[in-house]
What we know:
The protein has helices at 11-14, 20-27, 80-83; strands at residues 41-43, 49-51, 64-67, 76-79. The strands form two sheets. A two-stranded antiparallel sheet has the order 1-2. Strand 3 and strand 4 form a beta hairpin. The chain is α+β, with helices and mostly antiparallel strands and 86 residues long. It has one domain (23-83). It has three helices and four strands.
Amino acid sequence: MHTPxxxxxxxxxxxxxxxxxxxxxxWETAQVVPGNDPQVWRRDESGAWIHRLAYRNRRxxxxxxxxxxxxxxxxxxxxxxxxxxx
Length: 86
């Protein structure tokens, strides 16, 4: 199992495609879970755990991506392994 801070995946590749501000904005739409650091752990709309540093990390069980719904305002978090067979 790979961790969200896997050295095999360059950090600059993690947020490719969206600005850091958009990635953070979408992250903030994910569910905060009491007792967990909301800067690190959240749940997506399906209830799957996601890790902030696992953005676009398809090797992590906590990986997540942005579901582009046409506008930045409509973008949402999707967990990779549960929703898209990542």
